[in-house]
Amino acid sequence: MRRKRVLPMAALLLCTPLLAGTAPAAAAPQGGPAGPLRILLTNDDGYNAPGIRTAFQLLTAAGHDVTIVAPLTNQSGTGTKMLSGSTVNVEHPEPKVWAVDGTPGDSVAFGLAEVFEGRAPDLVVSGTNFGPNVAGLANHSGTVGGAVAALEYGVPAIALSTGGFAAPDPVATVNAMRPTVEFAVRLIDRLQDRAKAKSVPLLPEGVGLNINHPVVGADGKGTAAGVATTIQDPQQPLQPDFTDSGDGTWKVAVKFKPQPAAKGSDVEAVSAGKIAISPMSANWNTGPAHFAATSALLAGLRP
């Protein structure tokens, strides 16, 4: 039986200050949880998409306690948008699955405030996404946005995407979702072992991982050529194209115009058939060098 809930967004907004700035209630101890992880699984392709179902299946098979809290419909490209409406419809179509009629950020907010109320999950996993989230694509990705929302609330987060730096082949990309999640399972095991051994969190505070797994082989079932820790390539490969219809409206098209990959970037790694892992944070602060340079530019300004 499907159950629908309508939760006023005002209620979520009231819950948000309790979550923001510190880890949600009763977060995991410094050494990480002793047993299987409690994972909030979200995405931007919708709660019933192949990628999130593959992730649910394999993470559960690995022994983790996984709960899907994900958008009811496809929310690709919604980025970090969240908490922008006065109500949100929420369905509970099956055990361990919640479908939120909103963005990935809305889903994570609802999951932390309601589904995991009183005890935050140990980890939020967002994906795996159909297609890559590298370079400028990551800035507008709902998959990455869901992970960023978790980081804002102090919960460790991983964004997972499957695809090369090109238009995805549907069959091969879906096939490649399995090795994507299998890699994520191994990575989570490694993070958990390290957390226990060193009495540290799963990930450094405020740091998430944006993981992009290539599609290897014609059928997508091949093994990646390696793993690289990468920077986010600074390029924006999607270029807008507007055509005036002459009646006050403009036809909108997007052209894919990739540039040469930056050295050490996610684009370089995925294009070489490697898994790209880019550390990310939930804020847009620059590094110390750029901060110092900007401070020098602004020195002496007065109101």
Summarize this entry quickly.
Helix 2 runs parallel beside helix 5 (170-198). The strands form two sheets. Strands 1-4-5-3-2-6-7-8-12-9 form a ten-stranded mixed β-sheet.
Structure description:
- It is a single chain.
- The protein has 303 residues and is α/β, with parallel strands linked by helices.
- It has a single domain (4-298), classed as Survival protein SurE-like phosphatase/nucleotidase (Stationary-phase Survival Protein Sure Homolog, Chain: A, 3-Layer(aba) Sandwich).
- Helix content is 30%, strand content 25%.
- It contains 7 helices and 12 strands.
- The protein has helices spanning 9-19, 50-61, 104-115, 142-152, 170-198, 266-271, 288-298, and strands spanning 4-8, 38-42, 65-71, 87-94, 97-100, 123-130, 157-162, 207-213, 226-229, 238-244, 250-256, 274-281.
- Strands 1-4-5-3-2-6-7-8-12-9 form a 10-stranded mixed sheet.
- The longest helix is centred in the middle third of the chain and has 29 residues, at 170-198.
- It is globular, with a radius of gyration of 20 Å.
- The relative contact order is 0.14.
- The model is unreliable at 1-29 (pLDDT under 50).
What integer is the average pLDDT? 90
Order of helices and strands: EHEHEEEHEHEHEEEEHEH
Under CATH at level 1, the class stands as Alpha Beta
Low-confidence stretches: 1-29
Using the coordinates shown, work out and report the CATH topology: Stationary-phase Survival Protein Sure Homolog, Chain: A
Class by helix and strand content? alpha/beta
Largest sheet: 10 strands, mixed
Let me know the CATH homologous superfamily: Survival protein SurE-like phosphatase/nucleotidase
